[in-house]
Amino acid sequence: MSNDIISRLKLQRIINASGTMTSLGAARVAPEVAAMSVEILDHFVDIDQLQARASAAIAQATGAEAGCATSSAASGVSVAIAAAMTGPDLERIERLPDTSGLKNEIIIQTGHLINYGAPIEQAIRFTGAKVKTVGKDAQNSISGREAAALYVVSHHVTDPGLPISQFIRICKARQVPVIVDMASEDDIKGPAALGADIAIYSAHKFLGGLTAGIMAGKRDLIRAAYLQNNGIGRHMKVGKEGIAGAIAALEAWSRRDHQAVRDSELGIVSNWLSSLARVKGLRVEREPDWTGNPIDRVKVTVGEEAGLFAWELADRLAGRDPSVRVRDDLIEQGYFFLDPCNLARGEEYIVVEAIVAEIEAAQARNDGRRESFAQHRGRKIARLLQWPEGY
Questions:
Q1: What domains can be seen in the chain, in order of their start residue?
Q2: DSSP character for 233?
Q3: Residue 291 pLDDT greater than 90, yes or no
Q4: Which residues, 6+ apart, have CB-to-CB distance to 284 below 8 Å?
Q5: Helix (H), strand (E), coil (C) string for 242-257
Q6: Which bin fits 222, alpha (ψ -120 to 50), beta or left (φ > 0)?
Q7: What is the pTM of this model?
Q8: Whole-angstrom Cα distance, residue 27 to residue 157?
Q9: Residue of 27, 84, 215, 361 with fewest CB within 10 Å of its CB?
Q10: DSSP assignment letter at 53
């Protein structure tokens, strides 16, 4: 009988065909990251000094002037916004979210007001800042009361609006600092090269680090962001293992054979396309990443002949042993995605076998297409509201 941590904690064994999702633990941690994070646990360190070493590593990797680690990319957004309002003034830092007398408006394009598991508007308002939504007329909307502008690069964005280069150019011309949320993106040099004041990344997604955020940007604003640890940043502090893990993740990223990873993932996608194209009721298509990351996914549209709604199929896949999780954030539209980036060797075949088995079973039993999406969503919410029972 297996005695690994999944068994000991009585957890569901999961095959992750969803991607770098926080709800599933984000990503596999690179071996170098695990080793460095464990090594530092047995030592006391000066956190300011360790963060200074992180700053140097972040600057080298991103081309920015400086950087620091945060507890997550989401906290990085709040800390960066706070920094834009307070600068390095410790008195101002300590009295947030009281922003009286400060420039406290944050420009954001309407389509960028996303929910990534929590509303980004909340990450802004948490600091005491006010949200100022703009459209493509951003240039004419700047009044002088703005502390910063926030640009979001994410698959959650409904309308990208102005291109990032144009948005940065407009804001910089009016002396408005630009913060770029790049949590799930792997373009770690692009924002700094375009002149962004701060870019924020997740350390535990494409980088394969521990849970942490990485901030890279202009030295003065990064310093003001780091000083938020004397204020609201204290409530979102990152530990020594997270900081060391971020350093190791950036170093490992620089050594990774990205082409080999890409080739392996493309092989998985090709296998899925050929295998699932023969399944009655499914339509499969190759879908390049919509924000430009070097990854392709398989879009699986579930038709009437499959005998299941897309959300029913996803639920039944999740209920298997091992559980197969698909990328289902747009599933109400009748499709989901298969993402190859977090699969262990051979798991892609289990994904295909599970999909085929669940569709054949539903067709044989004629027990699908019974639950509307509204019922599906209501059941999910009801279960969550009963947590921790049932988990």
A1: 29-255 (3.40.640.10), 258-384 (3.90.1150.180)
A2: G
A3: no
A4: 272, 273, 276, 277, 298, 299, 300, 301
A5: HHHHHHHHHHHHHHCC
A6: alpha
A7: 0.91
A8: 22
A9: 361
A10: H
Q: According to the model, what pLDDT value does residue 2 have?
A: 65
pLDDT of residue 335: 97
Q: Give me the DSSP letters along 107-155.
A: EEEGGG--BSSSBHHHHHHTTT-EEEEE-TTHHHH--S-EEEEEEE-ST
Copy the structure tokens of residue 133.
Answer: 């939504």
- Give the separation between CA 169 and CA 173, rounded to whole angstroms: 6
Helix (H, G, I), strand (E, B) or coil at 97: coil
Contact call for residues 15 and 343 (beta carbons, < 8 A): yes
Give the model confidence (pLDDT) of 130-150 as tens digits.
999 998 877 778 888 999 999
Which three-class secondary structure state does DSSP give residue 290?
A: coil
Q: Are 313 and 302 in contact (CB under 8 A)?
A: yes
| Distance between CA atoms of residues 49 and 38, nearest Å | 19
Task: Report the Cα 90 to chain-centroid distance in Å.
Answer: 31
